[in-house]
Amino acid sequence: MSEITHRSKTRPVKVGNLTIGGSNELVIQSMTTTKTHDVEATVAEIKRLEEAGCQIVRVACPKEEDALAIAEIKKRIDIPLVVDIHFDYKLALLAIEGGADKIRINPGNIGRREKVEEVVKACKAKGIPIRIGVNAGSLEKHILKKYGYPTADGMVESALHHIKILEDLDFHDIIVSMKASDVSLAIEAYTKAAQAFDYPLHLGITESGTLFAGTVKSAAGLGAIMSLGIGNTLRVSLSADPVEEVKVARELLKSFGLASNAATLISCPTCGRIEIDLISIANEVEDYISTIKAPLKVAVLGCAVNGPGEAREADIGIAGARGEGLLFMKGKTVRKVPEETMVEELKKEIDKLAEEYFKK
Ligand code: SF4
């Protein structure tokens, strides 16, 4: 495995009440699918995302009416709001005025220097950062001409081009994304970006696909990047309800032990020794722990033969045992419970452990 551990070396950048980069945990982001000027629908979607664990939300801002809705949306939500703007500096200024906590705009695409200066001045005045979004599918013409097609080096060159415009204006509250739909290209681009600059990196595999295929593709790409110690914030992009993006992102963070505020389910794959209806129990328990904000490990196992021992690292768990269940903690059986009530018993124990965790 590579030696890169870019994450902790990055510059801390404030986004609303959160800090991205430095020694902070990876932050989960998603993007709304509503028309931003439809404030009711946008706020309702943001609330659903927040409930699922989304920590920063981005909205599209293609028109003036969208930029003008930012102030009202801000009043009604609790998580930082990022406004996504392409080219039009006037929309950026309106969004900043409306209270955006971060804007996503590529300074090299804004146009005349005075326009870039105005946007930077407004960001400085409000203390908000800019995310530079490099995308393999929309690299600058001169870079494409130089490299012939989208490459990781070309993407890094594009990022450095936009970064330099901001640095020349003494602006350093920068976050950079290096998105590509091709997993290998994204991994190489993020790895090279981590070596080229110390601004926080926003991870994403763009246009990754539908819920199932996109989850696998995102996990493959983002997992490889995260395993190198790269990435300060992430968005999983799926052609699905954005709540699913947040759920996938949370699972990914948990897989790397990078989420201190979420419980994890361990469930066995089942085999001929199974004694309970494990699949439906596992789904019920997974649903239950999705709202638990403590880093508990909860196991659900099909039988007691190998059960508790197979899940020694679990804080709490149940294993099926012919018409009953065994409740166990850290690999040791605590007590037997009737099959009909074992899920309820498990839930009560989970609640107790979560309560103890927060008392500590
Ligand atoms: Fe099979 Fe039991 Fe292991 Fe599940 S816990 S895979 S049922 S042996």
TrEMBL record:
Its pathway, per UniProt, is: Isoprenoid biosynthesis; isopentenyl diphosphate biosynthesis via DXP pathway; isopentenyl diphosphate from 1-deoxy-D-xylulose 5-phosphate: step 5/6
Single GO biological process annotation from the record: isopentenyl diphosphate biosynthetic process, methylerythritol 4-phosphate pathway
User: What catalytic activity is recorded?
Assistant: (2E)-4-hydroxy-3-methylbut-2-enyl diphosphate + oxidized [flavodoxin] + H2O + 2 H(+) = 2-C-methyl-D-erythritol 2,4-cyclic diphosphate + reduced [flavodoxin]
Swiss-Prot/TrEMBL cofactor(s): [4Fe-4S] cluster
Keyword check for Oxidoreductase: yes
At the top level of its lineage, which domain of life is listed? Bacteria
Gene3D superfamilies for the chain: Dihydropteroate synthase-like, Sulfite Reductase Hemoprotein, domain 1
EC number(s) recorded for this UniProt protein: 1.17.7.3
As for what it does, the entry says: Converts 2C-methyl-D-erythritol 2,4-cyclodiphosphate (ME-2,4cPP) into 1-hydroxy-2-methyl-2-(E)-butenyl 4-diphosphate.
NCBIfam families recorded: ispG_gcpE (TIGR00612), PRK00366.1 (NF001540)
What is the official name of this protein in its record? 4-hydroxy-3-methylbut-2-en-1-yl diphosphate synthase (flavodoxin)
Source organism of this protein record: Macrococcus brunensis
Gene responsible for this protein:
ispG
